[in-house]
Design brief:
Elements: H1 10-26, H2 28-64, H3 68-71, H4 90-128, H5 132-149, H6 151-166, E1 174-176, E2 181-187, E3 191-196, E4 201-205, E5 213-214, E6 220-228, H7 234-250, H8 252-255, E7 263-270, E8 275-283, H9 288-306, H10 328-331
Helix pairs in contact: 2-4, 7-9
């Protein structure tokens, strides 16, 4: 059995060179064009991400800028831009802004990165020649399954993001979230931490927060109900209460906490023991409780000085003969 060696020589080398040149010519677009287009896609996406990051940084810096009222030495300037404008303790204002800005900046940066990454992967796969239809269909099915399984988690994150964007409340605010009533210590995308009056720390999922009462918004009101006896002259009671409120307004320690003069609203109710008169005053946020306590003390002193009695429960003990009428002691 004989073996025939493949033909060699100048003719064979020329044929091989021609075949390689034909193949290279046919695949020039694939060898050079596709990598160049992929590199161009990556460069463009990186530039878009850098521009987006810079814009996000500017937004964060804008949030961190103190308001005009905080730069001034006096009381924070009132604003009428809407209910979202909050006036709080300046020592916590910076902390609140920083936390809000960091969270919003982080969320926006992550969202931009994820979106650009997905767009880039889709464009690169399209250049390579991989069909995107089946991949998109599979991704849609997986995303739908994850969405059904993590509805509460998605709701928590969306609610937390809206809370921060709308500035409903923040660190240092006194809020009422239902059972959780106290001071906000942390606001995250998923959880809100509230410290109640007894020192307990509440962890509330943002998706479960249906309504919020913020006692730190714009202004607060100190309301005091004072009960007097029925024989007290109401005109005298009004005058005494107005004088007590005037002394509180003129006190330097409380002048900056009151936004208006104390006003007597009038008779609130007629109870079995006496007449209830209500007085109220607008205060700086989070100071209404201290103002109410001081106003209660001044009202008590003023009523005592004017000789106006405050009704209180009286207990009368009746002592009688408990012996039976037919007993021997009762007949004597």
């Amino acid at each position: 059995m004989t073996h025939t060696a493949p033909p060699t020589g100048p003719a064979t080398d020329a044929q091989s060179a021609a075949s390689w040149s034909d193949w290279a010519g046919d695949h020039t677009a694939a060898l050079i064009g596709i990598p160049l287009r992929i590199a161009l896609i990556v460069v463009v996406l990186l530039v878009v991400r850098a521009v987006a990051k810079r814009a996000i940084t500017r937004v964060v810096q804008r949030v961190l800028e103190p308001s005009a009222g905080e730069n001034e030495g006096g009381r924070p300037r009132r604003s009428v831009r809407g209910a979202a404008v909050l006036h709080r303790d300046r020592s916590r204002a910076r902390q609140r802004r920083e936390q809000r800005a960091r969270t919003i900046g982080s969320v926006l940066s992550s969202a931009v990165t994820i979106v650009l990454f997905m767009v880039g992967v889709a464009m690169v796969l399209d250049q390579v020649g991989i069909a995107l239809g089946p991949l998109l269909a599979s991704a849609g099915v997986v995303g739908l399954a994850i969405g059904f399984g993590a509805q509460s988690l998605v709701a928590d994150y969306l609610s937390g993001l809206l809370i921060m964007i709308e500035d409903q409340y923040g660190v240092g605010d006194s809020v009422d979230l239902g059972e959780a009533v106290g001071e906000v210590e942390h606001v995250g995308l998923r959880l809100t931490h509230v410290r109640d009056l007894n020192g307990g720390l509440w962890h509330i999922r943002n998706g479960e927060i249906l309504r919020v009462r913020n006692d730190s918004q714009e202004w607060a009101r100190a309301v005091l109900d004072v009960a007097v006896t029925y024989d007290a002259n109401l005109d005298t009671v009004y005058r005494v209460l107005e004088e007590a409120g005037r002394t509180l307004r003129e006190d330097p320690d409380y002048a900056d906490l009151l936004l208006e003069d104390v006003s007597v609203w009038g008779v609130q109710s007629l109870d079995t023991d006496g007449v209830t008169v209500r007085l109220a005053v607008r205060t700086v946020p989070l100071q209404q409780w201290g103002v109410t306590r001081e106003l209660r003390r001044r009202v008590k002193d003023a009523l005592d000085e004017a000789g106006i009695d405050i009704p209180f429960a009286r207990t009368v003990w009746m002592r009688g003969d408990t012996r039976e009428p037919g007993s021997a002691d009762a007949l004597r």
